Amino acid sequence: MTTNPGELLSDFEARLRPLELELARAWWESSTKSSDATVQRQAEADLARREVLADPDTFAAVCDTRHAPDLDPLVRRQLDHVYDLCAPHQVPESTRRALVELETAVDATFTSFRGELDGARVDDNAILEILRTSDDAELRRRAWEASKQVGAEVGDRVRELARLRNEAARSLGYRDHFALALATGEMDEARLFATLEEVDQHTVGPFTEWKTDLDLTLAKRFGCAVEELRPWHLDDPFFQDPPTRGAVDLDPIFAGLDLEALTVRTFAGMGLDIQAVLEGSDLYARDGKSQHAFCIDIDRAGDVRVLCNVEPNERWTETMLHEFGHGIYDRKMRADVPWLLREPAHSLTTEGVAMLFGRLVRDPRWLERVLELDPATLAELTPRLEIARRASLLTFARWVLVVTHFERRLYADPDADLDGIWWELVEHYQQIRRPDTLQGSEWAAKIHLAILPVYYQNYLYGELVASQLDTAIFERAGDFVDCPAAGEFLTREFFAPGASMRWDALVERATGEPLSAAHLARQLAG
Fold first, then answer.
1. d(CA 56, CA 1)
2. What contacts 349, CB < 8 A, 6 or more positions away?
3. How far apart (Å, rounded) are the C-alpha atoms in residues 78 and 80?
């Protein structure tokens, strides 16, 4: 194996690139048209890709080469990137195969599973509609329980995935998979948990005050004592988003609107063209299709697609803006960035951009300019939109604290009382009382724990990035909504470099300061 850096990278890209393309296409197909055949294609593509990443000769050559003196910075960046890609896969072929087979099977279960409610199969949109609108507490309880049935279906397999991932990580000298994932993902564990503590301190006071008022509102609505409130009295099965009764109900504004046209209009106002992404996307619910939402860059050459299950309401409007935020980032990287680095600088940077766009759904300027909401309605809504914006940030931040702390404990001991740990964290951070009777494995209904492990902290960092970018955009472009200068700034300073810069260096260059929780704290303070 050559140790010439240029030849090493060229050879590695030549072997990896077609396999990345095949896996992306296979994953898209299995997510949009799940069947035994599409699931098998995905598993085979995943195994083939991991075999290249596991090549011991390539990994040894990268280890020998990446610390050489006088390397071109862009070459060094690629070698560091390849190291992080390959390090987790330096395990026996049997371990890789077991992981792929189990991950693919669990992913397929999530794609095809539909909960049962009163004898009928129901999709996530139907469950969410009940939780958003029904005043029947018993129906809400049954709907919430239906949303968790997939957890019982996959819970044991998620534990087994954690054991297998830990076995692989420990064979490589890491404490567990949680530590491995952070170390090979440009994330320092001590820094992460210091950030979590900082966010906890900034949010616990205002969240407690808001949640206390919310509980009084919900208790009055459902005719019960505050102490009798349970998770199904909230609008979201995981309390990721605030209930409309605790903020503002925007669903009537979006009812009947064309969310595709609205999304195109939003980005066009910033000089950003998402039409090509829209044309390749799959946006509406059906059987055999994933019920979740994501954006995927198929080939790092322009084929970017979004999967959604759109309905004309606030939640799906925000999701469309969020996912197409990912999409425009993928589309706007410079073509001269090496293929190995032609992706977002980090998951947290693309999540930050997506959140920046998703927040527009509660921005008065966007409602006025893009939705063309009448002045009287906008004037009536504006004070409540500020409450809704803060409630959304607080609710989501507290939710991320739950998931990130839970994942660290999941990998610390997959055989622990995970149900007890989950509800302990939910009660502490989200201030929700656990049900009197548990189905078990409610935590496993969150697909990320199985399919995107040790990812959730990127959403929290994404909120910090979004807040810091928001400040920088107004300083440099003067506005965000319908402001081509804002699109130009994002493209030039944030999208174009791809992963040619580390995420922390990119954020500091684009915003003028290192990433911190300060801008999020200021937004929470109003």
1. 10
2. 329, 462, 465, 494, 503, 506, 507
3. 5
Segment holding 117, helix H or strand E? strand 115-117
- Which pLDDT score is estimated for 399? 97
CATH class label, 189-525: mainly alpha
Distance CA 279, CA 283 (A): 10
Domain boundaries, the chain: 1-90, 189-525
pLDDT tens-digit readout, 362-398:
999 999 999 999 999 999 999 989 989 999 999 999 9
- Provide CB contacts within 8 A for 143, sequence distance 6+: 117, 122, 127, 130, 131, 134, 232
- What are 292-343's pLDDT values in tens digits? 999 999 999 999 999 999 999 999 999 999 999 999 999 999 999 999 999 9
Pair type for strands 294-297 and 304-307: antiparallel
CA triple 210-214-219, angle to 5 deg: 155
Give the closest residue to 389 by CA, choosing from 250, 254, 220, 236: 250
3-state secondary structure 380-428: HHHHHHHHHHHHHHHHHHHHHHHHHHHHHHHHHCCCCCHHHHHHHHHHH
Candidates 223, 248, 218; CA nearest to 233 is 218
Q: Which residues of the chain have pLDDT under 50?
A: none
